[in-house]
């Protein structure tokens, strides 16, 4: 028997004892519903409390083993949804047992509907605070009912969000680096750190690049076509595509500090250089994507995991410069996160992507987007720019390859 089996057996045995206790004593089983007792174990005898502790401990260890040694030490810093629920007294805005639409609730809390929705959808999958039984409408759960009704729980939240959390949160990027600048502006004046930062992107997910190679028909582009990789760091994605599609040329654009020194290859192991077999077809160019696009009429403008760093106004501005440079039949290919319909991914995947959405909110004041949000963003950039297709990398994936082109 492995440790995994031992733990699973321990969980099964202790849970059986606990569950049996509830049924033989005619007590309600623990649940997230509003009818559930605040503390199902309040009057349980010590042997049942012990069984409960054993089941919890075994499930924590099992979860940690299954998660692995990296995930086990990543702190859970994403408390912004609970903080917003506390601060805007969201649980108090509608009665227990009734449902309310996001738009009505947003009015009552004086928040943007799309921000309220993202905060609540994360709280649903992470904290079981609220539920969305019908799309677009939320109801209370046992936990949100407590937030609405229990003074002692409200005091606990006040302690966390007024006293402890602000102190933790003060280790943010600006404070840590003693700068009022955003991460990218700060790195622009620290070329060595900028290069390492961008090179760390080169170590991310080979499978994501493979999906990009597969989900867009690169081979259909005519020989000699140019692909502009906007915000392409030091060219790891373009190099990957260049190795697979020898008929294409790539221009990788990024901030000057990032691309600096890219022509001298290889003297620093920690920094990514385009491999020599494709160096003649992958050119690096310093370019700020908030200025007019210098490469006119490229077949494809590729933007990978970059638009999600920017709020709609900035993302639309960046896209508009591409629209101005695009030939009538050119295309914009985006690989980025695409938020799922609620409840359509596994709980863990949905937690991950909604957690990322809130990180985008606190780090960049930006957002992850649903398919309709992507279409809306293209429209905001230019009303002729249409979403042509959006394909998830694989079933259940939180990322997609999205193609946009000019209509007509
Ligand atoms: C999250 S990384 C994505 C890198 C790469 N596209 C990938 O898929 O791995 C975002 C990139 O955008 C670049 N970037 C940020 N602001 C920029 C700007 N104003 N102009 C050009 N590039 C910028 C960053 O330096 C960084 O390399």
Automatic annotation (TrEMBL):
Xref: Gene3D superfamilies: Vaccinia Virus protein VP39, Winged helix-like DNA-binding domain superfamily/Winged helix DNA-binding domain
Domain O-methyltransferase C-terminal: 182-380
Molecular function terms from GO: O-methyltransferase activity
UniProt KW keywords: Methyltransferase, S-adenosyl-L-methionine, Transferase
Keyword S-adenosyl-L-methionine applies: yes
Domain of life where this protein originates: Eukaryota
Name the record gives this protein: S-adenosyl-L-methionine-dependent methyltransferase
Taxonomic placement: Eukaryota, Fungi, Dikarya, Ascomycota, Pezizomycotina
